Amino acid sequence: MNKLFMLIFSLIFISGCGEEETSVGPSLEPELVGCEAANIYDWDSVEFSATLDQNQDTWIAFSLEEITLFSVFLDQTGFECSIYSGCDGAIGAGEPLFQFESIGNGVEIGIVSEGDYWLNLLNTRNRADFTFRIELNDIIYGCTDDDALNYNETANIDDGNCLFNDCTTDYWTSNFGDMILDCDGNCAPASWVGDGWCDDGAYAIVNEEGEEIPVNLWCDELNFDEGDCEVIVEDCTEGLIEDCNGICAPESWLGDGYCDDGSYEYNGNDIYFNCDEFNNDEGDCDVLGRTTQQRPYPNGKIPTQ
User: Fold this and answer.
1) Burial code of 263-290, b = ≥16 C-beta within 10 A, e = fewer?
2) β 157-158/141-142 pair status
3) Could you give the CA distance from residue 239 to residue 256 in angstroms, rounded to a whole number?
4) DSSP state of 286
5) Global pTM?
6) What are residue 21's phi and psi, to 5 degrees?
7) Of 108, 187, 199, 270, which is most buried by a Cβ count within 10 Å?
8) Which residues contact 149 (CB under 8 A, 6 or more apart)?
9) What is the pLDDT along the chain (305 residues), one digit of tens a residue?
10) Which residues make beta-bridge pairs with 281?
């Protein structure tokens, strides 16, 4: 065989084998996105600042080593925050454990057990710069209802053991009928709700020890005494003054020759000027001997003012 031919064949064979070897190798890995590309933070230092366009989101991940109570702080409104206990590719695994919209300050998340978590921040509004952080809180169990007898002002997790006044005792029911808890957690007659009198602490009942207990029904839970306290006149208009019970009435009724001891009405209210403050209606009620200083109060109401 021709030596020149053999040399050329050998060079071609060796060159071909080398090209095949260099072309065989591992393929490039795909770029991570979404949840799987989350920035990982140490739990004690979850704080950062960033910018997101409208409908743009970002992910972070963190790991808890023990059960804890934490709050999320984000200084912009309109960010949807979703926390997951797992990551499934680019999205969170399963339903969010917590989901809320930021309001420009802190939101208490609650108790979270140890484990890994992924948090998604989605800007639902215009492009915005924001600062995000997570704060840890010690868990303090106790009664968190400030109307309870054993209210614990330092507790941040309710233990379900709140104690309230017992309003079903014979004393209460025999004297006042059915009882409820008022806005301050005190026993109050159920019949006082919506009875036409504004029970905002102005009237009281007497307990077994003879103590006067003001009744406060002026709160959202009791519909502001079913409307009795919705309209509160702070000052009387010109020409009117408050009578013995704080009801606006014509000042000209004082000493006009008529005894205003509840016998006359103004704007649907019985008017009383026959008290020491008004010199017993400037003497109008002296002749008649009518010295009742205040209107009669139904259902055992005792004025506290």
Assistant:
1) eeeeeeebbbbbbeebebbbebbeeeeb
2) parallel
3) 15
4) T
5) 0.44
6) -65, -40
7) 199
8) 163, 164, 165, 185
9) 444 334 333 434 344 444 444 445 555 666 778 899 888 877 666 788 999 999 999 998 888 887 788 888 999 999 999 999 999 989 999 999 999 999 888 888 878 888 889 999 999 999 999 999 888 777 888 998 888 888 998 888 888 899 888 999 999 999 999 999 999 889 999 989 888 888 988 899 999 899 999 999 988 888 888 888 765 545 677 888 888 877 788 999 998 888 888 888 877 677 888 888 888 889 888 766 555 555 556 667 777 75
10) none
For residue 259 the two structure tokens come to 């005894």
Check: CB of residue 190 under 8 Å from CB of residue 178. Answer: yes
CA distance 280 to 88: 83
Kindly list the structural domains of the chain, giving each domain's residue range(s) and its CATH number in brackets, ordered by start. Answer: 34-137 (2.60.120.380), 170-226 (no CATH), 240-297 (no CATH)
